[in-house]
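G.,

No rush on this.
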Amino acid sequence: MEEQEVFQMPRIGDPAPDFKAMTTTGMMQFSEYIKGGWTILFSHPADFTPVCTTEMTGFAVLEDEFRKMNTKLVGLSIDSIHSHVAWVNNVKEKTGIFMKFPIIADIDMKVAKLYGMLQPGEHETAAVRAVFFIDPNAKIRLIMYYPLNVGRNMDEIIRALQALQTADEHKVALPLNWKPGEKAIVPPPKTIAELEERLKSNYEMVDFYLAKRDL
């Protein structure tokens, strides 16, 4: 039996692996590009394919919304820079949507391997639909993986980003289906004194370990 190559997959909490690559907006040193804010790095299997076109235009339509959330977008597929440029132009001509964010040309699969986007059980030479949320400290905070035949949910990507930023700002946790404007979960007490203080608080309490508050 032929032995499969094993690709390291970054984990939540790991530093975002650095790389240098050509993109549709020029050469990129990833560690420099992501400084000063949040970044969403996402892969698609191939240019000029239907599901990928719906996804990439979905990101493009919401790019201003991401920018307001201090978040940069970076796409990737295992295609050449010439293919990327032709596809961006084609999509603009056919739909009127311009993908202004950089798309990494990863024809040697270097970045895809670095980020565990190649999963041989799904496909040997096409990146799965991976999404990496990277915070201002260049740390990976959330990872999503989708198979080749299922498109992502942009509402959930926006919601997840809002949740990460809110949790960081207010030092809270967020419950199932949380959306901006809803109550957050207060971390549970770690001492008897904290427990007594919790019981005297005006938090919405299911019990002492599950309490919510307005932000």
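When you get to it, here's the other one too:
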Amino acid sequence: MSTNGGEHGPEHEVVWRGMTRAQIAAQYNPQIAVAEPARYGRENREASVAARARLAGTLDLRYGPGPRQCLDVFAAQGTALRRRGLAPVLLFIHGGGWRTLDKSVYSFIAPPWSDAGVVTVLPSYGLLPEVPLWRMVEEAREAVAWVHAHARAFGGDPDRIVLAGMSAGAQLGGMALAHEPSARVVRAAALASSVYDLEAHRWHGRHEDMALDEALVAKASPLHNPPLDPRLPMLLAVGADETPEMQRQTQAYHDMLAARGQPVRMQVEPGCHHLNMGRVFAQPQSGTFLALHRLLDETG
């Protein structure tokens, strides 16, 4: 195996985990692995427009100095999960390969949680190539700090924050759990369909702008940086139709957490691939939604 992730040998050369660069790229690129990839983003945007019209959330609140450091807050309308007049808070970090999408694409997550009595917060964050990966990690941590400081203004309980994320957002969320003080104020976490060991992205061309080397892989991979609180309840979700590598990444992170005694559950969603996995957070009958609902309830 080559020791330099920046070198590009012949396409047939086996470079990592018995795979060539082309094979690795196929495993980690949902635009290749999923038919009609544009369809899913379009449908998510349409559902999110409808969600914002229905809920009339408080949009574009600034949580940090970066140009994309704004978030949307959707208040709880239901009362089922309220305690002492306050609602739990679901902080959801979007995906997009660290270089696309924003909070507005995931507004569709908010309605069922609002109905259940949960405040939903959706932040955007800086993207590659303008913002380096480690700065994104810092912005995720700043979002957690903002939510803790401002939760009561939206009827949320600062002592009942649950962190969730999808794809790149799950990697960023996982790194927030490994940081003081953001880790201290999160009561549970639900992470879906992510790359928990960034070493994979050193071996194909799609993510060259991440500037990954051994040091950054070690510093920014949740697999190498577990939650500071070994008692934090965690849910890890992955689609049954995702690539073998994406499923392996989730299993490896789960096994590492379980080995340290972390209360962690792995949820495999039937019929889901990488581009529709985010929707399970908004589907009240999905295993992920039900497990996350329990996590939010148990924070009280």
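The first helix runs from residue 21 to 27. The chain has a mean pLDDT of 95.

Enjoy the weekend,
O.
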